[in-house]
Amino acid sequence: MKEKYESLLNLGIQKRHTNSLNKRIRLLNTFCVIWGIVVLIFVSLELIVSIVLEVINHKTITFAFIDIRFFFTHFFILISLILILFLNKNLHFKWGRFYFLSVFVIANSYASLIISPGHYVEYYFVLLSPIVSTLYTKKSSSYLALIIGFLIFLTPYYIYVVYPTEYVDRLIILESACIFLVVHLLVNYFKSNNLVYEKLLALERDKVLSDKFILEKQEAELRELSEFKSHFFVNLSHEIRTPLTLIQGYTNQLTFKESDKENKEKTTVIKEQCQQMQDIINSIMDLSKMESDQFELIRIPVDVNSFLEKYFTNFQSLFAKKNIDFTFNNNTLKTNILIDKNLFSKAISNLLSNALKFTSINGSVAINTTFNNDDGITINVIDSGIGIHKEERENVFKRFYQVKNDITKSQGSGIGLAFTKSIVNAHHFSIDVKSSIGKGSCFSISIPKNYVSSAIHQPKIEPQNTFSTNEQTKPTFINKKQNILVVDDHEQMRIYLKKVLKNYNVTEAEDGKDALSILQNNSFDLILTDYMMPVMDGETLVKELKKQQNKTPIIVLTARTDQQGKLSMLRLGIDGYLHKPFMEEELLINIKNGIALYKNVKDFDKETSPEELKNLNEYADKFNTKITTYINQNINSPLLSVDAIAEYMAVSRSTLNRKVKSILGQTVNQLIQEARLEKARNLRAENPLASKKQIAEAVGITNTTYLFDKLKERYGI
Ligand code: ADP
Q1: How far does residue 115's CA lie from ligand 1's centre (Å)?
Q2: Which ligand 1 atom is nearest residue 415's CA?
Q3: What is the domain extent for residue 547?
Q4: What separation, in Å, do the N-terminal and C-terminal C-alpha atoms of the chain show?
Q5: Hey, whose CA ends up nearest to atom 7 of ligand 1?
Q6: Residue 628 near residue 676, CB atoms below 8 Å
Q7: Which of 603, 625, 652 is the last residue of a domain?
Q8: Chosen domain end from 543, 572, 603
Q9: What is the value of pTM for the model shown?
Q10: Ligand 1, atom 14: nearest CA belongs to which residue?
C-alpha cells in the first residue's frame, strides 16, 4: 500500500531532471492526491449526513437533498485530478500545473459563488499563493498569485454580491488582506530557508562525492602500486638471485691451504652473509607472493608434537650458546593439524629466531601447546626477553616495522613477523602477542578445531622432493662424458654452470630459439634451461620439445618461486625444477638422476618387446584407474592425503610419488588437488543452487574461500 502511494507521488519523476523540478512534480502529485482524498471524504460525509437527516426527519429516503451541481463539481475535480496525474506521468508537468491551478480557481469560484455562496468558501483562495510558490520557482509568480487570489476572494463581496452589504466593511477586507499576506510571507520565508539548506546540502554532497572520488582514485593508485611492487619484487629477485648463485657457487669452489686460516674465515663470513641475503630475499618474495595470492597452500595432516619437537631440537644448540633455558612443554596427545608444512615451519622458525634474538643471556624460552576441545590447539612461544610496549604490539606485525632498540639497530629487517602473520592468516589461523616490558613476550598461534584431528597413527611425513634419490633410481656410472645443453640468457651463469658441469660436455644456447636450432642436428642426454629468457622463454621451449616428442630429460632452473609458474611447467612433464640459488650438489644429483632415468627408459625401450611394452601400458592404465578411483571415492574426506593413498596402494610414500610422477606426470598432491577442483567444478555446474560450503564439504576442503579462490585461478569460475 505504502509502495503504491509512493509510486503515485513519484509519477513523472526522472533522473535526468533537476532536483528542483522533481521536487515540484512530486509536490503537484501530492496536492492532487490530498485534494482527491479530501473530495472523497467530503462527498461521502455529505451523503451519509444527508441520508441520516432524511431518515430522522422524513422516516424515508427521498434523495431530495441531492444537489446535482455539488456532485458534478466534485466529480469534475476528481476527474481533473486524475488527468493531472496522467499529464505528470507523461512528462507534461507544465500543462499539469496549469490545469491544476485552473481547476483550483474554477472549482472554488463556482463553489463560493454558485453552490455554497455565503459559506466562506472564497477563503480557500488564501492557498493560491502558497501553491504557486511551491510549483513555480519565480518569486514574481507567487506575488501575482497573491494578488489574483485576493481579487477573486473579493468577488462575492463586491461584484457578485453574496453577503449583505452591512457585513462588508473595510475592517473585514483589511483583516482578510492581512491573512492573505501573512500566509504568503510565511510560506515564502520557509521556502527560501529550505532553499538555503538545500544548497548547503548539495555542497556537502558534492564534497562527499569528490572525497569519495579522490579516495577511490587513491585506492586504485595504491592497488596499482602494490601490483607494481609485487612485480618489482619478482623481477628484483630474479636479478639478485642469479648473481647470488654465482657468488655462492664460486665461494664454495674456493679451496685454501690448511695454513690459510684468514682467507678461510673470510670465506665463511661471505657464505653466512650470502645465506642471510638469500633468506631475506626469500622472505620478501614469499610475503609479496602471499599478498598477491599467487601461492598455493598445500595442507597435509602433520603431528603437531613431532613437528615442534624437530624445531625444538634444531634450535637447542643456538639457545644453549646464549645459556638460555629452552624447554618444550607438550600438553597435547598425538594430534594432527592440517598445515602447509613448508610454510608453517617458516612461521615457527621466525618466532623462535625472535625469541632467541630478544632474550638475553641466562633467560628462558619455552614452546608449549595447549589443546581445548572447543577451541582447538594453541602453540605458544614464550620468552623472558625485553618485551614489547603496548602501543607497539599491533605494529610489530606490519611489514618492515621494527621497534627501536639496541638489538634492532644492528639486526633484522622487520619482515619476519609480517611474514609469519601472512602465513598464519593464509591458514585461517590467528596469531596474537602478549607482552610486558622487561619481563618477556608470548606469541600464540591458535589453530581452530576444524583443522585439528586426532591421529590414529602418526603419518610419516617425508620431505617432498620431485627427485627421489633412493635406490631404485640410483644413477648408473657411465664412463663416457655425457652431453648437456645449457640454455640461459645470462652469460656469467652459463660460464658458472659449465664449471659446475665439468664432468659433462656442455653446449650453450642463449635462449629457447637458439636451443631449438641446436637440437635440430644434435641430441643431448639432458637439457638444462632457464625459465625467464628473452626471444623464447623456458616454458615455450619445453612446449615445443614436447610437441616434437623429444624425450630428452629437461630440468628447469629458475629464480621464479611462484607455484603457478612451477605448476604450469610441471604439467608439461619436465623432469625437475630447481630454484636459484641452488646447491651445486643438488643440481648434480638431479642431473644424474634425470639422465639415469632417461637411460633406463631408452634401454628399456630398446630391450622391451612390443608385447611387453603393451603389458606395461596396461599396468600404467590399471595403476591410474586404481588410484583415481580411490581418490574419487574419498574425495569428500579432508584427511585424504599422500599417506592414506600410499597405505591403500601398499607402497611407500616416496615410491608412490615416483610412480605417480612417471605415469601421470604430476605429484600425488597435485593429483588430489586437481581431482578436488574438477569435482567442485562439476558439482557447481550440475547443481548451481548448492551453497559454496556444501560444495567445499563434498570435495573434502574445509576452507571454502580457499577452494573458490583456487577454482577461480584454475578455471576462472
Ligand atoms: P625483525 O626481527 O627482523 O626486526 P620482525 O618482524 O620479526 O622483524 O619483528 C618486528 C619487531 O617486533 C622487532 O623489530 C622487535 O622489535 C619486535 N619483536 C619481535 N619478536 C619479539 C620478541 N620475542 N621480543 C621482543 N620484541 C620482539
Answers
A1: 93
A2: 6
A3: 483-603
A4: 42
A5: 416
A6: no
A7: 603
A8: 603
A9: 0.41
A10: 402
